[in-house]
Specification:
binds pyridoxal-5'-phosphate; 13% strand; 3-stranded antiparallel β-sheet; alpha/beta; 41% helix
Length: 395
């Protein structure tokens, strides 16, 4: 049967990390050795005290629906956590718990954006921004992040993009895929540019705990910005809880009520025991996060050093998250084709920069959320690939 899908489906994109992972796992199932540097999730287990809190919650009967925006105790824990980590005053009424922070992005677009409204978002950037912006019929206004500008916003370009039709500005710092971090002065300038417009800022801070120097600074902390900022965050990355599907948004109470309504219409609520686990994670000892970040720091150094020793590749030191975005533009040709060959011929799974937008041409993305041993093996495979024939075959 040839199904005639609704027109809107043709606008929807995807996150190719999931597709590459599925292909890589398929090759593994055929007996191939694969080094997985494609997917963005910590390779550590969820800290045991968090899992224990969830098991306790299950035994205590947290196996039913919760209020759509989340259990009040969980919203309180998030409000305290965000107040402390961002230096702002957050009440539980500002918080909406969702099954994965991605939902906050979808709900923000559904609540605020009419077809034709403009959305500014980073390119390269997390592909779901563009996919969902297209899905709701927004006018796309990507802002190019350039290596020579440390993959931060060019503020002059940003000012030129903001106008009376701008409805949403998406920030992501620390950034996927570049590992870049917006400086405090960048954030202040961005706030100044949108302050007197009708634009909201969606600040995707999912990597805010994965920062290697300095402290995280949220645009919500700029005086006057909290009520027009939606902080998108969650448990996935900082606490190695990607499979628990729990994220949250912090926003103006009017918008929080709309998001709760969208929750009623879609998921009903987030899983009760995941919310109880989130309380344990956010209020319990934080040494597992510190240890994880310290290990990521070591791996970051390792992978950057190895990449920079490979002929034809240069790589900046990322400041946050767990990704490197090496420049491979010395090799002529399409990076998608290069990433395919690395997987098929060398058993190295990574993503082409173009999976994150046009601005990713000439780059590859590697996740270093894998053991040092696997990173070394992955870099060996890459070195071989480059030396053997990639450079000539791609030329
Ligand atoms: C920039 C960015 N935002 C959001 C997410 C989604 O995270 P969650 O697991 O909370 O849905 C990811 C996951 O890779 C991400 O890289």
């Amino acid at each position: 049967m040839n199904i005639e899908f609704a027109e809107r489906m043709s606008a929807l994109g995807t996150e190719s990390a999931f597709e590459v992972m599925a292909r890589a796992k398929g090759l593994e199932a055929q007996g191939r050795s694969i080094i997985h540097l494609e997917i963005g999730e910590p390779d550590f287990p969820t800290p045991p005290f968090i899992t224990q809190a969830a098991v306790r919650a299950l035994h205590e009967g947290y196996t039913h629906y919760t209020p759509a925006a989340g259990l009040m105790v969980a919203r309180e824990a998030v409000a305290n956590y965000v107040s402390q980590t961002r230096g702002i005053k957050v009440q539980p009424e500002h918080v909406v718990m969702v099954p994965g922070s991605k939902n906050i992005l979808l709900f923000a677009l559904l609540s605020l954006v009419n077809p034709g409204d403009e959305i500014i978002y980073p390119d390269p950037g997390y592909p779901i921004y563009e996919s969902l912006a297209r899905f709701v019929g927004a006018k796309l206004r990507p802002i190019r992040l350039r290596e020579e500008n440390d993959f931060r916003f060019d503020l002059d370009e940003f000012w030129s993009l903001v106008n009376s039709r701008t409805r949403l500005v998406i920030l992501n710092s620390p950034h996927n895929p570049c590992g870049s971090v917006l400086e405090r002065s960048d954030i202040q300038a961005i706030a100044e540019a949108v302050m007197d417009t009708k634009a909201f800022v969606l600040s995707d801070e999912i990597y805010s705990r994965l920062l290697y120097d300095g402290a995280h600074y949220s645009i919500a902390a700029v005086p006057g910005m909290q009520e027009r900022t939606i902080i998108m965050d969650g448990l996935s990355k900082a606490y190695a809880m990607t499979g628990w599907r729990l994220g949250f948004g912090v926003m103006n109470t009017q918008l929080a009520a709309r998001m709760a309504q969208l929750m009623v219409n879609s998921n009903s609520c987030s899983a009760a025991f995941s919310q109880m686990a989130a309380i344990a994670a956010l209020t319990g000892p934080q040494d597992s996060v510190t240890k994880m970040v310290s290990e990521f720091r070591t791996r970051r150094q390792l992978i950057v050093d190895k990449l920079n020793k490979i002929k034809g590749i240069s790589c900046r030191m990322p400041k946050g998250a767990f990704y490197v975005f090496p420049n491979v533009s010395a090799i002529n040709g399409d990076v998608k084709c290069m990433a395919n060959r690395l997987l098929e011929e060398y058993g190295l799974a990574c993503l082409p920069g173009t999976a994150f937008g046009e601005g990713g041409q000439g780059y590859l993305r590697f996740s270093y959320a894998n053991s040092q041993e696997n990173i070394l093996e992955g870099m060996n495979r890459l070195r071989h690939a480059m030396a053997e024939h990639l450079s000539s075959a791609m030329a």
